[in-house]
Specification:
About 65% of the residues lie in helices and about 5% in strands. With about 210 residues, it is mainly alpha-helical. The chain has one domain. It has a two-stranded antiparallel sheet. The structure holds zinc ion (ZN). Zinc ion binds near residues 29 and 78.
């Protein structure tokens, strides 16, 4: 246990002198990790895109919806503390994209989309199969996020059942259960919506 000499040396080493990053060995990030703040900060952008006059721009819709999905996915993969309340928070942010999905699904075939490559906005492409591809890709990304959240919720349920009525975070077990039920229901509803969209876009244009 007591190693005279060695213990001192490591603590005096300057962290800035070490250029090698330690990806998984850093201690768990604190509860107030920035990933959730980043996620929240995307909501006003969604509102801007939806409320744009004279009418919302499809390309912006795709962009902000994708950004929200990515920021939610970042939170699930961040590695910082996640409790049932955090999952509710992620789902609440994600639910804000419902209006965008609705708009995109309805207007995908009569609007034009600017396709951006890097910082360049190349051209307006009015191509039904391209739009379909973009819609399906967005749905796929959202679907992957839902799968991640679903898996985390499932693990939390198992952990809670195994440990009986133990508190998780600051919430009592019954509240955690309600939160996880809400998350599961929200996921199920989105999955239904995505199935509708996928079926619609899959059938609309059989030849690729
Ligand atoms: Zn985080």
């Amino acid at each position: 246990m007591d190693q005279s000499g060695d213990g001192r040396e490591s603590s005096t080493s300057d962290p800035l002198a070490d250029p090698i990053a330690l990806p998984r060995q850093v201690p768990p990030t604190p509860k107030n990790c920035q990933c959730k703040v980043n996620m929240m900060m995307n909501i006003p952008k969604l509102d801007c895109a939806i409320q744009e006059t004279p009418k919302p721009q499809l390309d912006k819709m795709f962009k902000v919806t994708g950004d929200v999905i990515h920021s939610c996915q970042d939170s699930t993969r961040c590695g910082c503390y996640l409790g049932p309340v955090d999952l509710v928070c992620i789902m609440t942010v994600f639910e804000q994209t419902a209006a965008c999905f609705d708009y995109i699904a309805k207007s995908s075939f009569d609007g034009t989309i600017k396709v951006g490559i890097g910082n360049y906005c190349v051209s307006k492409i009015d191509d039904a199969s391209l739009k379909r591809m973009l819609v399906l890709d967005l749905v796929k990304q959202a679907d992957e996020l839902l799968d991640s959240v679903s898996e985390i919720a499932q693990n939390m349920s198992v952990a809670q059942n195994e440990h009986g009525f133990k508190r998780m975070g600051r919430s009592p077990a019954c509240l955690n259960q309600l939160n996880l039920d809400y998350v599961r229901e929200a996921i199920a509803n989105f999955k239904k919506l995505f199935r509708l969209i996928t079926d619609f876009f899959g059938e609309k244009d059989p030849k690729s």
